[in-house]
Every structure is written in C-alpha cells, then in structure tokens.
C-alpha cells in the first residue's frame, strides 16, 4: 500500500483548471518533493490531499483512505503545515506544540514527551517558555515544523516548510525530516528551493500547469540530462544547440573545452537545470496554485 | 506511527484546549482585553439609568447580559477569520480528528472567558437589583446559554464567508448594530407595536424577551415567551447545521 496514491485528480477555480489530471504515488518512508512554478497547482494538490479542499474529479488516497469519502480516517493519520502558516504568537513554543498535539488527539503524557523531543531536535528547547512573537521568523517556522513532527503522523504534508529560514535552520529542519521519514513515515513537501529538493528528497515530482510533467529520484532526473556541464549564455546568443530559459540560454557540454565566448557561467549539471528546461510556464501564472 | 482517536472524548477535550489557548492564555497575558469588552454595555447601562431611573437600570442590566453574549460572537468572527486567513491555523486543525463543531464551541467558550467579567458584573447586578426566584434564574440562564450557542455558531459560519481579514472589522461592527442595538434588546418588544414579532427574527431579542419577562420589567403572554424559546432553539439548530454542513471547514 502506498502512503499517497493519486489518479486523474482534477480541480478548477472558476474557469481555470488548476489540476488537470494528476497521477502520482509515493511509498511509505520516503520524502517526496513537489517542484513547480507559482500557480502550477502545488498548494491546491496539498489542500486536497489534506482533506481541506474537495477535488472535482479523479481519486486520491492517503494512508490507504479516500480523501473524499474517508476524510475522518485520513485526518487521524496526517499532519500539515499549510503555505504561509504561522504559529499563534502570544503562545510559547511549548504551549503551541503541546496544544496542537492535544488537538490531534495524543494522550497528555505522550504529548508532553513528544513536545520535549521535538523542541530539542529543532533547537527550540531553550526558548520553550519565550513568547513566539519574540522569536525570529526562522524560529517561528521551526515551531510549526516541531509541532507536525511531534505529531507522529503517518503522512506529513509541508507546503514550503523552509521559506525564510537561514542556512543553518534549513539544515536543522532537513535533518529532522530525514530522521522522521526513517521511522517509516512519508513526507510530502512543496518547495521553491531546488537544492533542498535535491538534497533531501527520495523522489521529485515536477508539476507544470496542473500536470505532473516529470518524476524520479533527483539523481535519475539529473542523469537524464546530456553532457556533464551546463553553460549559460545570454538569450541573445545565436545558437541552435542551447535551450532558452527566460533571459538565458543553457547549453549542455561534455567538456569545458566546448565553452564558447560570451558564457555567463558554467556549472556541473544539476536538478535545477533539469527543472529549468522541463517547466514550460515560468512566470505565466499569478493566481493561487 | 501512532493512530489517534477522534471520538466524543476527544472532541470535548479539543473544546477545552481551544478555550485555554484562545481564551485563558491571552487574558492572563493581557487582562486589559476583559475591560475593553465592558465599555459599551456599561455606557448604555449608565445612560439608561440616568434617563429612565429604575426601569432603565433593569433594561440596562438585561441588555448588558445579552450584549456580553453578543460580543462573544462578534469576537469569535474576528478570531476564527484570523486563524483561517492569517495564521492558517484552522487548516492545520482540519487535518486532525477535531471536528468543526468542537472547533467552533471551543472558540466560543474561549470568547466567554474574555467576556466573563462582564457576565459576572451584570449577573451580580441582576441578582441584587431584580430579585428573581430559582425558576426564573434558570429561565434566564437557559436563554443566555441558547443565545451564546446560536450567536457563536452563526459567527463561526459568517467568519468562513470572508476571503480577506480586513473586511471582518466592518462586519463585526455592523452585527453589533443589527443584533444589539436595533432589535428590542434594550427596549421592550411591545414598542414595535403590531410588528412585535420582529423580535423573533434575531436570537438576541428573543433572549431579551424571555429575560425581560422573567424579571417582570415587561409582561409578555405565555405564547409570546414560548415562541421566543422556539426562536432561540431554531437559531441554535440553524447554527449547528451551518457549522457542520455549510461553513468553509472543508472547501467545496
């Protein structure tokens, strides 16, 4: 049984079809990242899978339960950090995480132990009694992560969990997510940070205009690119061998000797390059996705 | 992985947790909130007492009790909308076993914590100024509980209609006018003449009608009083249906 199974999922807002038939499956114990431009449908997909939004077509199962007909069963097994979520700021980190766990139905003894473990893991134990409004933005975000990771849910959904975090905080969160998934839980996250997806994900899904356009492990996706290096030229360069992406033109080469005059930068091929050339709708969408 | 239960026991506990986190905690950290909810009903009490002496005093006390319940509801609109639109806290709770009714009642209970000083003040004045027997006190209490429930349910439903937080501020003020000032809360329904039945159209004036009759400041017929109870129960049922079936807990 997969942790998440989606078949032909559709959802519209007015005339705009945001999800146009999403298919994906994610096994237990995996971290899956959903990458895509603004408005591609990432948040809409998360909202449907967390039972907050009804789909208009297709099927979706989380932890083996239908998100429409068995929403109650799904809710017992998941936890979510929505996009742009913030903790209640007059509370302390301890109070927020503890009350969230009680609302999730954990017994008080278990909740107290889980709060301590989670706050320690995310480096928040020393500020557990400090009102959240006195904490930095990064720490506020970590309070949310601490809450969902303390929940011990089977499937966790994180909509852009590391926005606003500094480099060290991001690594603290990544380590916690990796530790959490190693216990057999599944983490499904959306992110705009391609390096984040590359570093922590077992599987990456690329979504564009409401469709999954690519999937695979970060390594598989990168290795599907030609050559070893990517040379970035201005878009004005006259060449058939490079792929235009916004104001740039990307050329894939085997050797550094193949670099022509006018190159802006050269780097080893990466997931970012794969994403840049696979997504076709950069900058086109501005509405909720 | 730990699988959690979501039965009645959990829903009752969720109500208390929400009342704690949204009511007790902020009030302990900023007690000024409690006083701010008292300003308007005390102002009206003073004004009515100066203008109409004893009758004004009694009407001001009755109105003050109802106003306290109403302000619970209007505060709930703001808090529920803030949690949904700004903090996305409601979305986090949707993905838990806590159901929308427990969420609503929990928030409603937390708002009562805010207005508790007002309720206590007016209840004490009520007991001192208007000697009522136990039966009448029970009628008054029942009426206020029904009012609290119905206004809270309607408030939560209303909060889910909005997509932008600043629109809520205007609505809360309008609701105070429409539910607290215009209907016969601070004046007898008989002042409406042949249109006295308009009092049943909102839960606040239905409750006022019952309490005014209980304390004897206005005498209504048993039919009128019973219809007021029916009106309050109907508002409660309507509120429950709106919260469970219509409110934007799960978006369609």
Please provide a written account of the structure.
The complex is a heterodimer of chains A (289) and B (252). Helix content of chain A is 30%, strand content 27%. Chain A has helices at 42-49, 71-75, 93-103, 108-121, 137-150, 167-181, 194-200, 218-223, 271-278, and strands at 4-13, 16-26, 31-35, 57-62, 65-66, 78-81, 155-159, 186-190, 203-208, 211-216, 229-234, 243-245, 248-253, 265-268. Chain A has a six-stranded mixed β-sheet with strand order 6-7-8-3-9-10, with helices on both faces. In chain A, helix 3 (93-103) crosses helix 4 (108-121) and helix 3 (93-103) packs parallel to helix 5. Helix content of chain B is 76%, strand content 0%. Chain B is mostly helical and 252 residues long. Chain B has one domain (8-246). The longest helix of chain B is centred in the N-terminal third of the chain and has 48 residues, at 39-86. The model of chain B has no long low-confidence stretch (mean pLDDT 90). Classes of the chains: A alpha/beta (289), B mainly alpha (252). The interface between A and B is large, with 42 and 33 residues.
How is the CATH topology of the largest domain in chain A named?
Rossmann fold
Query: What is the β-strand count of chain B?
Result: 0
Please mark out the parts of chain B with pLDDT under 50 across 5 or more consecutive residues, or reply none. none
Helix content of chain A: 25-40%
* Oligomer kind: heterodimer
The CATH superfamily of the largest domain in chain A bears the name P-loop containing nucleotide triphosphate hydrolases
The DSSP helix count of chain B reads 9
Q: Approximately how much beta-strand content do the residues of chain A carry?
A: 25-35%
What CATH architecture of the largest domain in chain A would you give? 3-Layer(aba) Sandwich
- Whole-angstrom Rg of chain B: 18 Å
| Order of helical and strand elements of chain A | EEEHEEHEHHHEHEHEEHEEEEH
Mean pLDDT of chain B, as a whole number?
90
Distance between the termini of chain B: 30 Å
How much of the sequence lies in strands of chain B comes to under 5%
Tally the helices of chain A. Answer: 9
How many DSSP E strands of chain A?
14
- Structural class of chain B, by secondary structure, is mainly alpha
Structural class of chain A: alpha/beta
SSE order of chain B: HHHHHHHHH
Describe the global form of chain A. globular
Shape of chain B: globular
């Amino acid at each position: 049984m997969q942790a998440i199974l989606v078949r032909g999922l559709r959802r519209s807002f007015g005339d705009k079809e945001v999800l146009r038939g999403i298919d994906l499956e994610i096994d237990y114990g995996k971290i899956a990242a959903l990458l895509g431009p603004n408005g591609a449908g990432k948040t809409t997909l998360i909202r449907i899978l967390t039972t907050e939004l009804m789909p208009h077509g297709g099927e979706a199962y989380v932890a083996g339960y239908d998100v429409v007909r068995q929403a109650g069963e799904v809710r017992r097994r998941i936890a979510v950090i929505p996009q742009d979520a913030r903790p209640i700021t007059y509370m302390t980190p301890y109070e927020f995480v503890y009350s969230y766990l009680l609302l999730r139905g954990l017994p008080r003894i278990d909740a107290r132990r889980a709060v301590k473990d989670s706050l320690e893991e995310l480096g928040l134990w020393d500020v557990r009694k400090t009102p959240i409004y006195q904490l930095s933005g990064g720490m506020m975000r970590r309070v949310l992560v601490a809450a969902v990771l303390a929940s011990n849910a089977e499937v966790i959904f994180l909509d852009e969990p590391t926005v606003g975090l500094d480099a060290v905080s991001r690594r603290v969160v990544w380590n916690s997510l990796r530790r959490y998934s190693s216990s057999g839980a599944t983490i499904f996250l959306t992110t705009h940070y391609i390096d984040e997806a590359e570093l922590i994900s077992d599987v990456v899904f690329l979504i564009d205009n409401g469709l999954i356009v690519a999937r695979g492990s970060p390594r598989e996706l990168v290795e599907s690119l030609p050559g070893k290096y990517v040379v970035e030229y201005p878009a004005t360069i006259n060449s058939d061998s490079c792929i235009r992406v916004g104001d740039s033109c990307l050329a894939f080469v085997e050797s550094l000797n193949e670099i022509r005059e006018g190159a802006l930068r050269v780097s080893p091929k990466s997931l970012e390059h794969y994403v840049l050339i696979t997504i076709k709708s950069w900058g086109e969408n501005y509405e909720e996705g | 992985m730990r699988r959690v239960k979501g039965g009645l026991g959990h829903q009752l506990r969720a109500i208390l947790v929400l009342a704690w986190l949204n009511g007790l905690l902020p009030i302990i950290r900023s007690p000024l909130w409690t006083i701010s909810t008292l300003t308007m009903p005390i102002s009206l009490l003073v004004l009515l007492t100066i203008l109409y002496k004893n009758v004004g005093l009694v009407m001001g006390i009755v109105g003050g009790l109802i106003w306290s319940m109403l302000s619970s509801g209007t505060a709930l609109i703001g808090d529920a909308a803030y949690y949904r639109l700004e903090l996305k806290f409601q979305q986090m709770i949707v993905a838990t076993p806590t159901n929308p009714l427990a969420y609503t009642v929990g928030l409603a209970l937390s708002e009562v914590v805010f207005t508790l000083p007002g309720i206590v003040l007016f209840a004490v004045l009520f007991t001192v100024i208007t000697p009522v027997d136990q039966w009448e006190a029970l009628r008054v209490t029942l009426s206020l509980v029904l009012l609290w429930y119905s206004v809270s349910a309607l408030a939560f439903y209303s909060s889910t209609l909005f997509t932008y937080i600043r629109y809520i501020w205007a609505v809360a003020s309008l609701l105070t006018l429409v539910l607290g000032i215009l209907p016969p809360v601070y004046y007898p329904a008989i002042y409406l003449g042949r249109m006295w039945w308009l009092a049943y159209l909102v839960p606040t004036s239905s409750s006022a009608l019952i309490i005014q009759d209980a304390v004897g400041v206005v005498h209504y017929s048993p039919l009128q009083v019973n219809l007021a109870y029916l009106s309050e129960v109907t508002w409660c049922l309507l509120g429950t249906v709106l919260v469970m079936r219509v409110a934007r807990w799960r978006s369609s």
